[in-house]
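User: Can you recover a sequence for this backbone? Please restate the input before giving your answer.

Assistant: Of course. Working from this structure:
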């Protein structure tokens, strides 16, 4: 049995999913002289760097706020209204400056060509099985969106179940979620347009390929789960937003509904809500045997959640039963793994920061025993347990050992059976399935190895290759290693370093350092075209594992939250200093990049140590730490950040908020901010205001630009063409700053 993300994890990923994936998504001409690395820069690159930029004038307004006795100016508040003509004019003016700059770079076109060539390879999603059919996604290389395929057996020619590329001309409508009915006949699917988090759900008959009339609107942060009788599914939604507030208004009071096929959404049955707790959200998953739906209750992006049991009737349908609380203390993370008879197995970090499995023996009437009677099935390990599933009567537990995956198989009795052999140091994901399935699938990847798909026999533990992509990236010419860095307070953290074999440690290598550090999300080594392209350009790619993530369990995560958030910045700075000390690079050749919470990381670190970096690219970052909670789902991040509404929290937020800590009269590196005009997760006002303040400061001649993508959001569902253009521009901007010759 496989449940979806726990409530806390789902909201954590609502901030960062696309960038967690990105950190996972060198020819001789790219090499530079060891003695004079900048000397090979083309005349156009030198001219671009030397000519001071003229930025659009950004109006300042008289706006100040009193935060617990401290007056804080906010002169660019008007940029928060992304619908105003003035803001739209500002966006056009900024993009015009950025476009002229990017077009003048000799590195732009060759970098885009190289990125396109490396992106153009067959990509597969991890297969899953439902109703006697296999389902998986595939992209032939440069398709705007991946296509969902299905087949009765792995040897059959697959058929298209749904092709999102047919839903829009420009590829900006993406498949945001799928749920297959238990008989494999019906597909409920969510679609999102222009990168927005808002989803519309529809239902397709897989036998005819036609959509049914059913349409579900205003879904966000929710999937769907069918009742076994195939008559309907559970989903969660918000009330329709007020006119003009769809992309900025705060999202509160999510409700869980049951939709019956053939009826209008207005007739959907309300299953769960909480009128007293506006931050409560809901999700429901039906167990393998179809007797029960388990309701997850989340209250933000933190790990702590509640669970309720919802009995289904004898025919596998929903007859209006009331939820039965299982645990509502919100004192830890509780993730259902499998229901085996009346025995419910949970993954939790209750009294186990690195995770363990619990066994709960439910009554025949679904009565819940006292928590004191719940027993440990698999105890806490020295490694952090990051996921668990039940397949073939076995428990498959994924752990992280210094940010690299290891998988252990346990029997139903909790006894260790074997370790699953993986191809090497890297990231494995998948392992979904049902308690009675005989097989499961997983992906494996590293910084130098594109993701390959393996089949696992659940009873024997044997694996076999299912799909391996062929790419233009010659992995045998590159290498990856794991090193360890000591942070400011003595904490030891891993970094993954990848580059062409035979690298000279002479301090002159162009180096790109990526980080995230937040929301309990592990950063593990995985292939992405950005890293591959950078390495082909002659660069060193480094992934830093920072506190705030989930690589070492709950304690590691908490060490990078709230008043301890500075630890994350210290870790990232330490990684940069280590690369310089160990002669990989020097500050003038060191670039940093991160998205979402990682964009906050880059913004904060540039302000604290502008001398350590030569270029910085914060993507869709949380830059205004005093007002983030006022927009869309921003309130859910308070569990990691705190909130300026509280006097104590304000004191640490104001100290690192990127918007409020820009240093005047300090020489800054080259900075290019990126965002999307339809980002309703981290609203673009964060990037707008930060860029305006950065351009207004006296911080040297290096460019301070913003690249604003239209018809794009936080990152999820972005069409291939926009991905290539944006990420190639990021690498070309860094290469131009470093004077690299890209061919």
């Amino acid at each position: 049995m496989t449940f979806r993300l726990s409530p806390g994890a789902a909201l954590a990923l609502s901030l960062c999913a696309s960038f967690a994936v990105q950190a996972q998504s060198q020819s001789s001409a790219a090499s530079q002289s060891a003695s004079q690395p900048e000397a090979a820069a083309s005349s156009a690159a030198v001219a671009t760097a030397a000519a001071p930029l003229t930025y659009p004038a950004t109006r300042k307004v008289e706006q100040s706020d009193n935060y617990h006795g401290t007056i804080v100016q906010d002169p660019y508040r008007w940029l928060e209204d992304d619908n105003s003509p003035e803001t739209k004019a500002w966006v056009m003016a900024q993009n015009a400056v950025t476009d002229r700059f990017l077009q003048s770079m000799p590195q732009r076109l060759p970098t885009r060509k190289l990125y396109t060539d490396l992106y153009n390879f067959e990509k597969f999603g991890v297969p899953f099985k439902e109703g006697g059919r296999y389902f998986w996604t595939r992209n032939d290389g440069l398709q705007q969106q991946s296509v969902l395929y299905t087949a009765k057996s792995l040897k059959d020619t697959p058929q298209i179940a749904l092709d999102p590329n047919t839903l829009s001309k420009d590829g900006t409508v993406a498949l945001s979620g799928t749920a297959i009915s238990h008989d494999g006949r019906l597909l409920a699917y969510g679609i999102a347009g222009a990168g927005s988090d808002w989803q519309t759900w529809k239902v397709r008959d897989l036998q005819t390929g036609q959509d049914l009339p059913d349409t579900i609107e205003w879904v966000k942060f929710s999937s769907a789960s069918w009742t076994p009788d195939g008559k309907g599914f559970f989903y969660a939604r918000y009330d329709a937003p007020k006119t003009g507030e769809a992309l900025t208004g705060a999202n509160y009071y999510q409700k869980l509904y049951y939709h019956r096929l053939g009826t209008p959404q207005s007739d959907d049955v309300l299953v769960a809500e909480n009128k007293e707790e506006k931050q409560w959200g809901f999700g429901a998953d039906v167990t393998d045997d179809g007797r029960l739906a388990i309701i997850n209750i989340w209250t933000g992006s933190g790990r702590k959640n509640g669970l309720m049991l919802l009995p289904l009737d004898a025919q596998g349908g929903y007859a209006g039963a009331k939820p039965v609380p299982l645990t509502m203390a919100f004192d830890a993370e509780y993730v259902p793994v499998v229901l085996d008879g009346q025995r419910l197995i949970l993954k939790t970090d209750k009294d186990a920061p690195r995770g363990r499995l619990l066994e709960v023996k439910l009554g025949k009437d679904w009565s819940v025993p006292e928590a004191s009677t719940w027993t440990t099935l698999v105890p806490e390990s020295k490694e952090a347990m990051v996921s668990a599933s039940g397949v073939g009567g076995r428990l498959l537990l994924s752990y992280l050992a210094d940010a690299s995956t290891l998988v252990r198989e346990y029997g139903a009795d909790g006894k260790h059976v074997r370790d699953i052999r993986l191809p090497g140091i890297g990231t494995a994901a998948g392992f979904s399935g049902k308690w009675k399935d005989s097989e499961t699938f997983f992906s494996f990847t590293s910084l130098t190895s594109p993701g390959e798909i393996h089949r696992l026999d659940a009873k024997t533990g044997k694996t076999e290759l299912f799909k391996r992509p062929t790419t233009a990236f010659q992995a045998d010419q590159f290498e990856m290693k794991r090193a360890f860095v000591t942070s400011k307070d003595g904490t030891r953290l891993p970094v993954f370093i990848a580059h062409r074999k035979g690298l000279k440690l002479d301090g002159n290598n162009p180096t790109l350092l990526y980080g995230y550090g937040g929301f309990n999300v592990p950063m593990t080594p995985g292939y992405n075209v950005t890293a591959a392209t950078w390495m082909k350009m002659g660069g060193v790619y480094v992934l830093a594992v920072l506190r705030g993530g989930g690589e070492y369990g709950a304690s590691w995560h908490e060490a990078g939250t709230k008043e301890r958030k500075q630890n994350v910045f210290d870790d990232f700075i330490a990684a940069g200093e280590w690369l310089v000390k160990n002669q990989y690079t020097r500050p003038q050749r060191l670039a940093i990049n991160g998205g979402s919470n990682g964009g906050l990381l880059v913004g904060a670190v540039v302000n604290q140590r502008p001398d350590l970096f030569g270029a910085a690219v914060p993507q869709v970052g949380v830059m205004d730490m005093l007002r983030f909670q006022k927009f869309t789902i921003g309130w859910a991040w308070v569990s990691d950040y705190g909130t300026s509404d509280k006097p104590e929290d304000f004191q640490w937020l104001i100290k690192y908020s990127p918007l409020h800590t820009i240093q005047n009269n300090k020489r800054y590196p080259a900075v290019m901010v990126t965002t999307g005009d339809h980002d309703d997760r981290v609203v673009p006002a964060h990037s707008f205001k930060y860029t305006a303040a950065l351009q207004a400061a006296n911080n040297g001649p290096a460019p301070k630009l913003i690249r604003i993508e239209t018809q794009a959001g936080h990152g999820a569902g972005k069409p291939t063409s926009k991905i290539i253009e944006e990420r190639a521009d990021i690498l070309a901007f860094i290469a131009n700053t470093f004077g690299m010759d890209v061919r």
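That completes the design. The two ends are 49 Å apart (CA to CA).
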